[in-house]
Design a protein that fits this description.
This protein is of the alpha/beta class. 39% of the residues lie in helices and 19% in strands. It has 13 helices and 12 strands. Helix 2 packs parallel to helix 11 and helix 3 packs across helix 4.
Length: 329
Amino acid sequence: MRRREFLTILSGAAMAPLIWPGGALAQQPRNPSTIGFLGTTTPTIWSANVTAFQNRLRELGWTEGRNVSIEYRWAQGRDERYAEFAGEFAQQKVDVIVTAGTTAVMALKKATSTIPIVFAAAGDPVRTGLVTSLARPGGNVTGLSNLQTDLGGRRLELLREILPSLKRVAVFGNVGSPLIALEMEGVKADAAKLGLDTFRLEVTKAEEIVPALQALNGRADALYICSDPFLTTYRVRINTMAVAQKLPTMNAFREYVVAGGLLSYGPNFPDLFRRSADYVDKILRGAKPADIPVEQPVKFDLVINNTTAKAIGLTIPEQFLLRANEVIE
Protein backbone atom coordinates (compact mmCIF):
# COMPACT_ATOMS: atom_id res chain seq x y z
CA MET A 1 0.00 0.00 0.00
CA ARG A 2 1.32 3.43 -0.92
CA ARG A 3 2.09 5.85 1.92
CA ARG A 4 -0.50 8.44 0.76
CA GLU A 5 -3.27 5.84 0.59
CA PHE A 6 -2.39 4.59 4.09
CA LEU A 7 -2.56 8.10 5.56
CA THR A 8 -5.93 8.74 3.90
CA ILE A 9 -7.39 5.56 5.39
CA LEU A 10 -5.93 6.36 8.83
CA SER A 11 -7.34 9.90 8.74
CA GLY A 12 -10.79 8.67 7.78
CA ALA A 13 -10.75 6.12 10.55
CA ALA A 14 -9.87 8.79 13.10
CA MET A 15 -12.80 10.97 12.04
CA ALA A 16 -15.36 8.16 11.91
CA PRO A 17 -17.49 7.29 14.97
CA LEU A 18 -15.95 4.66 17.22
CA ILE A 19 -17.56 1.27 16.62
CA TRP A 20 -17.59 -1.43 19.29
CA PRO A 21 -17.63 -5.08 18.19
CA GLY A 22 -21.12 -5.89 16.95
CA GLY A 23 -21.47 -2.53 15.22
CA ALA A 24 -22.81 -0.45 18.18
CA LEU A 25 -21.74 3.18 18.43
CA ALA A 26 -19.58 3.97 21.46
CA GLN A 27 -21.57 5.97 24.05
CA GLN A 28 -20.39 9.55 24.17
CA PRO A 29 -19.99 11.21 27.60
CA ARG A 30 -23.18 12.99 28.69
CA ASN A 31 -23.17 16.60 29.78
CA PRO A 32 -23.07 16.94 33.57
CA SER A 33 -26.48 16.99 35.25
CA THR A 34 -27.43 20.13 37.15
CA ILE A 35 -29.08 20.16 40.58
CA GLY A 36 -30.72 23.30 41.88
CA PHE A 37 -30.41 23.41 45.68
CA LEU A 38 -32.66 25.92 47.43
CA GLY A 39 -31.69 26.47 51.07
CA THR A 40 -34.41 28.14 53.08
CA THR A 41 -32.11 29.57 55.77
CA THR A 42 -28.31 29.99 55.62
CA PRO A 43 -25.33 27.78 54.70
CA THR A 44 -24.25 27.81 58.37
CA ILE A 45 -27.58 26.55 59.70
CA TRP A 46 -27.84 23.92 56.97
CA SER A 47 -24.17 22.87 56.95
CA ALA A 48 -24.80 19.38 58.37
CA ASN A 49 -27.71 18.86 55.96
CA VAL A 50 -25.67 19.90 52.91
CA THR A 51 -22.75 17.69 53.93
CA ALA A 52 -25.02 14.66 54.36
CA PHE A 53 -26.60 15.30 50.94
CA GLN A 54 -23.25 15.73 49.18
CA ASN A 55 -21.71 12.65 50.80
CA ARG A 56 -24.61 10.43 49.75
CA LEU A 57 -24.49 11.76 46.19
CA ARG A 58 -20.81 10.76 45.99
CA GLU A 59 -21.63 7.29 47.31
CA LEU A 60 -24.18 6.96 44.51
CA GLY A 61 -21.61 7.90 41.87
CA TRP A 62 -22.30 11.62 41.42
CA THR A 63 -19.16 13.73 41.69
CA GLU A 64 -19.48 17.50 41.64
CA GLY A 65 -17.42 18.96 38.80
CA ARG A 66 -17.34 15.65 36.89
CA ASN A 67 -20.84 14.37 36.17
CA VAL A 68 -22.96 16.75 38.24
CA SER A 69 -23.01 20.41 39.19
CA ILE A 70 -25.00 21.99 42.04
CA GLU A 71 -26.41 25.51 41.94
CA TYR A 72 -26.94 26.76 45.52
CA ARG A 73 -29.33 29.52 46.52
CA TRP A 74 -29.96 30.72 50.10
CA ALA A 75 -33.18 32.48 51.09
CA GLN A 76 -31.98 33.33 54.65
CA GLY A 77 -35.44 32.83 56.12
CA ARG A 78 -37.12 35.25 53.69
CA ASP A 79 -40.11 33.55 52.11
CA GLU A 80 -40.36 36.16 49.36
CA ARG A 81 -37.05 34.97 47.89
CA TYR A 82 -38.37 31.49 47.08
CA ALA A 83 -40.21 32.65 43.96
CA GLU A 84 -37.14 34.56 42.75
CA PHE A 85 -34.86 31.53 43.05
CA ALA A 86 -37.51 29.20 41.67
CA GLY A 87 -37.66 31.38 38.57
CA GLU A 88 -33.88 31.24 38.22
CA PHE A 89 -33.84 27.45 38.39
CA ALA A 90 -36.65 27.21 35.85
CA GLN A 91 -34.82 29.57 33.49
CA GLN A 92 -31.60 27.58 33.87
CA LYS A 93 -33.53 24.38 33.16
CA VAL A 94 -31.86 22.45 35.95
CA ASP A 95 -32.47 18.70 35.92
CA VAL A 96 -33.87 18.51 39.46
CA ILE A 97 -34.44 20.89 42.39
CA VAL A 98 -33.86 20.00 46.06
CA THR A 99 -35.23 21.99 48.98
CA ALA A 100 -37.03 21.62 52.31
CA GLY A 101 -40.07 23.32 53.80
CA THR A 102 -43.64 23.52 52.61
CA THR A 103 -43.62 27.19 51.57
CA ALA A 104 -40.45 26.73 49.50
CA VAL A 105 -41.89 23.70 47.71
CA MET A 106 -45.09 25.61 46.96
CA ALA A 107 -43.09 28.41 45.33
CA LEU A 108 -41.09 25.94 43.26
CA LYS A 109 -44.20 24.05 42.23
CA LYS A 110 -45.79 27.30 41.08
CA ALA A 111 -42.69 28.20 39.03
CA THR A 112 -42.42 24.89 37.17
CA SER A 113 -44.63 21.89 36.51
CA THR A 114 -41.95 20.03 34.55
CA ILE A 115 -38.68 20.17 36.51
CA PRO A 116 -38.63 17.42 39.18
CA ILE A 117 -38.70 18.76 42.76
CA VAL A 118 -37.43 16.77 45.75
CA PHE A 119 -38.23 17.97 49.26
CA ALA A 120 -35.83 16.64 51.87
CA ALA A 121 -38.34 17.55 54.57
CA ALA A 122 -41.89 18.89 54.44
CA GLY A 123 -44.77 18.68 56.86
CA ASP A 124 -48.06 17.01 55.88
CA PRO A 125 -47.41 17.06 52.11
CA VAL A 126 -50.90 15.74 51.29
CA ARG A 127 -52.97 18.23 53.34
CA THR A 128 -50.83 21.14 52.12
CA GLY A 129 -51.31 20.06 48.50
CA LEU A 130 -47.70 19.25 47.64
CA VAL A 131 -48.60 15.72 46.50
CA THR A 132 -51.76 13.82 45.66
CA SER A 133 -50.94 10.92 47.96
CA LEU A 134 -47.90 9.53 49.75
CA ALA A 135 -47.87 6.33 47.70
CA ARG A 136 -48.48 8.03 44.33
CA PRO A 137 -47.36 11.68 44.57
CA GLY A 138 -48.38 12.60 41.02
CA GLY A 139 -47.03 15.67 39.24
CA ASN A 140 -43.38 16.70 39.53
CA VAL A 141 -42.94 16.68 43.33
CA THR A 142 -41.87 13.99 45.81
CA GLY A 143 -39.62 13.60 48.84
CA LEU A 144 -39.69 12.96 52.57
CA SER A 145 -42.20 14.02 55.22
CA ASN A 146 -40.87 15.39 58.53
CA LEU A 147 -44.13 14.61 60.41
CA GLN A 148 -44.22 18.17 61.73
CA THR A 149 -47.97 18.17 62.29
CA ASP A 150 -47.94 14.67 63.81
CA LEU A 151 -45.49 15.08 66.68
CA GLY A 152 -47.20 17.79 68.74
CA GLY A 153 -48.61 15.38 71.29
CA ARG A 154 -45.28 13.66 71.84
CA ARG A 155 -43.48 16.98 72.28
CA LEU A 156 -46.03 18.13 74.86
CA GLU A 157 -45.66 14.83 76.74
CA LEU A 158 -41.89 15.37 76.91
CA LEU A 159 -42.40 18.90 78.21
CA ARG A 160 -44.70 17.64 80.94
CA GLU A 161 -42.20 14.95 81.97
CA ILE A 162 -39.66 17.58 82.97
CA LEU A 163 -42.30 20.07 84.13
CA PRO A 164 -45.03 18.11 85.95
CA SER A 165 -46.78 21.34 86.94
CA LEU A 166 -47.32 22.24 83.24
CA LYS A 167 -50.83 23.58 82.66
CA ARG A 168 -50.73 26.37 80.06
CA VAL A 169 -48.68 26.44 76.85
CA ALA A 170 -48.16 29.35 74.46
CA VAL A 171 -47.98 28.11 70.85
CA PHE A 172 -45.76 30.43 68.82
CA GLY A 173 -45.68 30.39 65.02
CA ASN A 174 -45.58 32.12 61.67
CA VAL A 175 -49.18 31.94 60.51
CA GLY A 176 -48.12 33.09 57.05
CA SER A 177 -47.12 29.47 56.45
CA PRO A 178 -49.98 27.07 55.61
CA LEU A 179 -48.12 24.26 57.35
CA ILE A 180 -47.63 26.23 60.58
CA ALA A 181 -51.31 27.10 60.64
CA LEU A 182 -52.07 23.36 60.49
CA GLU A 183 -49.48 22.59 63.17
CA MET A 184 -50.91 25.18 65.56
CA GLU A 185 -54.36 23.63 65.18
CA GLY A 186 -52.90 20.17 65.80
CA VAL A 187 -51.00 21.25 68.92
CA LYS A 188 -54.17 22.74 70.37
CA ALA A 189 -56.05 19.46 69.83
CA ASP A 190 -53.19 17.37 71.24
CA ALA A 191 -52.92 19.63 74.29
CA ALA A 192 -56.64 19.26 75.02
CA LYS A 193 -56.24 15.46 75.06
CA LEU A 194 -53.51 15.87 77.67
CA GLY A 195 -55.59 18.25 79.77
CA LEU A 196 -53.46 21.28 78.88
CA ASP A 197 -54.64 24.75 77.93
CA THR A 198 -53.06 26.57 74.97
CA PHE A 199 -53.18 29.99 73.38
CA ARG A 200 -51.60 31.21 70.17
CA LEU A 201 -48.89 33.76 69.56
CA GLU A 202 -49.10 34.62 65.87
CA VAL A 203 -46.41 36.46 63.88
CA THR A 204 -45.72 37.02 60.20
CA LYS A 205 -42.94 39.66 60.32
CA ALA A 206 -39.67 40.04 62.21
CA GLU A 207 -40.79 43.19 64.01
CA GLU A 208 -43.70 41.26 65.58
CA ILE A 209 -41.51 38.72 67.39
CA VAL A 210 -40.34 40.81 70.36
CA PRO A 211 -43.77 42.37 71.18
CA ALA A 212 -45.43 38.96 70.96
CA LEU A 213 -42.98 37.40 73.40
CA GLN A 214 -43.03 40.41 75.72
CA ALA A 215 -46.80 40.10 75.92
CA LEU A 216 -46.46 36.66 77.54
CA ASN A 217 -45.59 38.23 80.89
CA GLY A 218 -46.15 35.10 82.97
CA ARG A 219 -49.24 33.91 81.08
CA ALA A 220 -47.70 30.57 80.09
CA ASP A 221 -45.77 27.75 81.76
CA ALA A 222 -43.93 26.85 78.54
CA LEU A 223 -43.45 28.00 74.94
CA TYR A 224 -44.07 25.59 72.05
CA ILE A 225 -42.30 26.94 68.95
CA CYS A 226 -43.70 25.89 65.58
CA SER A 227 -40.38 25.87 63.76
CA ASP A 228 -40.05 27.17 60.22
CA PRO A 229 -37.26 28.90 58.23
CA PHE A 230 -38.51 32.36 59.22
CA LEU A 231 -38.41 31.74 62.99
CA THR A 232 -35.20 29.71 62.65
CA THR A 233 -33.47 32.87 61.45
CA TYR A 234 -34.47 34.62 64.71
CA ARG A 235 -34.00 31.64 67.05
CA VAL A 236 -31.30 33.35 69.17
CA ARG A 237 -33.55 36.36 69.79
CA ILE A 238 -36.48 34.09 70.67
CA ASN A 239 -34.44 31.96 73.06
CA THR A 240 -32.87 34.99 74.75
CA MET A 241 -36.31 36.37 75.55
CA ALA A 242 -37.60 32.98 76.72
CA VAL A 243 -34.65 32.51 79.09
CA ALA A 244 -35.14 36.04 80.44
CA GLN A 245 -38.71 35.02 81.35
CA LYS A 246 -37.49 31.63 82.67
CA LEU A 247 -39.74 29.97 80.14
CA PRO A 248 -39.06 26.37 78.98
CA THR A 249 -39.20 25.99 75.19
CA MET A 250 -40.01 23.01 72.97
CA ASN A 251 -38.77 22.95 69.37
CA ALA A 252 -38.69 20.67 66.35
CA PHE A 253 -35.08 21.31 65.31
CA ARG A 254 -31.74 20.78 67.07
CA GLU A 255 -30.55 24.17 65.78
CA TYR A 256 -32.91 25.92 68.20
CA VAL A 257 -31.46 24.06 71.18
CA VAL A 258 -27.87 24.75 70.14
CA ALA A 259 -28.91 28.42 70.07
CA GLY A 260 -30.18 28.35 73.66
CA GLY A 261 -33.57 26.62 73.48
CA LEU A 262 -34.41 24.01 76.12
CA LEU A 263 -35.66 20.94 74.19
CA SER A 264 -36.15 19.70 70.68
CA TYR A 265 -37.73 16.50 69.46
CA GLY A 266 -38.09 15.55 65.83
CA PRO A 267 -36.57 13.80 62.83
CA ASN A 268 -32.83 13.73 62.30
CA PHE A 269 -32.58 16.25 59.47
CA PRO A 270 -29.12 15.30 58.16
CA ASP A 271 -30.54 11.79 57.68
CA LEU A 272 -33.51 13.18 55.74
CA PHE A 273 -31.18 15.17 53.48
CA ARG A 274 -29.00 12.10 53.01
CA ARG A 275 -32.02 10.11 51.89
CA SER A 276 -33.12 12.91 49.56
CA ALA A 277 -29.97 12.22 47.54
CA ASP A 278 -31.41 8.78 46.74
CA TYR A 279 -34.44 10.49 45.21
CA VAL A 280 -32.17 12.73 43.14
CA ASP A 281 -30.19 9.70 41.98
CA LYS A 282 -33.33 7.89 40.83
CA ILE A 283 -34.61 10.96 38.98
CA LEU A 284 -31.30 11.65 37.24
CA ARG A 285 -31.34 8.03 36.08
CA GLY A 286 -34.79 8.40 34.54
CA ALA A 287 -37.40 7.82 37.27
CA LYS A 288 -40.42 10.13 37.42
CA PRO A 289 -41.25 11.96 40.69
CA ALA A 290 -44.91 11.04 40.26
CA ASP A 291 -44.02 7.37 40.73
CA ILE A 292 -41.61 7.66 43.70
CA PRO A 293 -43.50 7.37 47.02
CA VAL A 294 -43.08 9.94 49.78
CA GLU A 295 -41.24 8.37 52.72
CA GLN A 296 -41.28 9.02 56.47
CA PRO A 297 -38.43 9.70 58.92
CA VAL A 298 -36.73 6.69 60.51
CA LYS A 299 -34.40 8.51 62.93
CA PHE A 300 -35.63 10.83 65.69
CA ASP A 301 -33.56 12.94 68.06
CA LEU A 302 -34.24 14.29 71.55
CA VAL A 303 -31.83 17.14 72.26
CA ILE A 304 -31.55 18.94 75.62
CA ASN A 305 -29.69 22.10 76.56
CA ASN A 306 -28.86 21.54 80.23
CA THR A 307 -27.17 24.94 80.48
CA THR A 308 -30.46 26.57 79.55
CA ALA A 309 -32.30 24.38 82.04
CA LYS A 310 -30.05 25.64 84.84
CA ALA A 311 -30.44 29.24 83.66
CA ILE A 312 -34.22 29.07 84.00
CA GLY A 313 -34.04 27.23 87.34
CA LEU A 314 -35.16 23.84 86.02
CA THR A 315 -33.59 20.54 87.12
CA ILE A 316 -33.98 17.85 84.50
CA PRO A 317 -34.18 14.30 85.96
CA GLU A 318 -31.12 12.15 85.33
CA GLN A 319 -33.20 9.41 83.70
CA PHE A 320 -34.58 11.92 81.23
CA LEU A 321 -31.07 13.14 80.37
CA LEU A 322 -29.96 9.55 79.77
CA ARG A 323 -32.70 9.11 77.16
CA ALA A 324 -31.53 12.09 75.14
CA ASN A 325 -29.57 11.68 71.91
CA GLU A 326 -27.59 14.78 72.82
CA VAL A 327 -27.18 16.87 75.97
CA ILE A 328 -25.62 20.31 75.58
CA GLU A 329 -23.77 21.40 78.72
